[in-house]
Structure formats: structure tokens, C-alpha cells
Amino acid sequence: MKHVFQLATSDFNNTTPHVRSHILRDHIIHPSLPSLPLLLTSTDIRTPKVIQIKSNPNHRVEAHFWNHATNEQFRISGRAAIYPSPDLKEKKGIKGVGEVYEAFQSQGWDWEDERRKQFDSVGAHMRASWCRPVPGSPMDSYSDAEKWPVKVAKPGEEGYDAKDYEEALGNFALLLIDPIEVDYVELGVMPNRRTKFVRQESDDQRWKEMVLVP
């Protein structure tokens, strides 16, 4: 099951917040750092959020999760990394910085292989969303969308079109979040509880726990 969450960024002046929904596609965990998972989602490399994240000196973002079944809220603040197609002429990506990414690099982890795997794991309708004009660009009318591909099949699937597939793949990028702080609120218990976990960069105790007023 894929979880929908909200991802917040700020503009290049750090004055206006921007938020949008994302799908959590996976957790990437290095064997030597089991308490430091990376959250994996995806984006169109042409979207404004990429510029917003790159303009932040520390590439900070915040993710918000809400579990309706248990009335639990998670706000996760962390450093973002973006891995686009290596074939792009312009360098639009953000390489991950920190011990988690360094651990993957030392292991020879192939983010391009992960990018392609994640792209092929989504449905044909979803893949078509990366085969459209630049997100947020003006349209003459809603009928313009009738010209766009409805499905983009992957190799081996019926209706495969190499041009559409490669165009969509070229716009598809991984977006990873390396958590630094987690604000956890339990609204399903009475009285409500709130706990904050702060990552300790230079301590054997990876996370410092603080009980807060809900």
C-alpha cells in the first residue's frame, strides 16, 4: 500500500511556503544504519519544487503524514536529495550529503538503477504524467490535455512506444528525504501525547526523545 503525504518547501527567498501531496514509494535502509531510513518518493524534474529545494542552503523539506485509522500525525523534517536522469544536459539534481548517503556510496549503490526500477513499478497511467508539457505551464484550454498520452507502457507491455517511454523516464526523478527531526502526535489516546525525536549526529544514541505538550 502506498501512503500519501504532504511535502512542504519554501521559495528561493525563503518567504513563501509551498505544499503538495506525494506518494511514499519506499524506505531505503542501509544495513549498517538500520535506525536511519531514507524516505523515497518521486518528482518531475521540471517542477518548481526542484528549484525551491535547490535554493535552500541545506535542502531542507518537511513531510507530513496522517494516519486516519489511528489518529496519528508525523511531521518529518530532513535533508532532500534529488536523483534525475544522468542524460540531462543541465545538472538539475541534488546529491545526498550525510552519513547515510556516504554509506550507500561506499557500497557502490546505483541510484540510476533504483530510479529505473521505481519508474517501471508505477502504472502506465502514472507514467504518462511525466510525458506532458512542463507542470504549471499555461494551457489554452482543458481540451489541450486530450492530445497527451493516456498511458505509457514499459518494454514488454502492450502498446509500448519507445519515444513516449524515454521522454517520461527522462523527466522522472527520485526524491529522497534523510530525516533529522520527527514530531509525533498521538490523538487516538486520552490524554493526547506528543513526542519529538531529534537526530544526534555525533552520538551513539541516534535519536534524542523529548516529551512535548500536544
UniProtKB/TrEMBL annotation:
Q: Which parts of the sequence belong to the Pyridoxamine 5'-phosphate oxidase Alr4036 family FMN-binding domain? A: 3-83
What InterPro entries would the database entry show? Pyridox_Oxase_Alr4036_FMN-bd, Split_barrel_FMN-bd
SUPFAM superfamilies this protein is in?
A: FMN-binding split barrel
Residue stretches spanning the membrane: none
Q: Which GO terms describe its molecular function?
A: FMN binding
In terms of superkingdom, the source organism counts as Eukaryota
State the name under which the record lists this protein: Pyridoxamine 5'-phosphate oxidase Alr4036 family FMN-binding domain-containing protein
Organism in which the protein naturally occurs: Suillus luteus UH-Slu-Lm8-n1
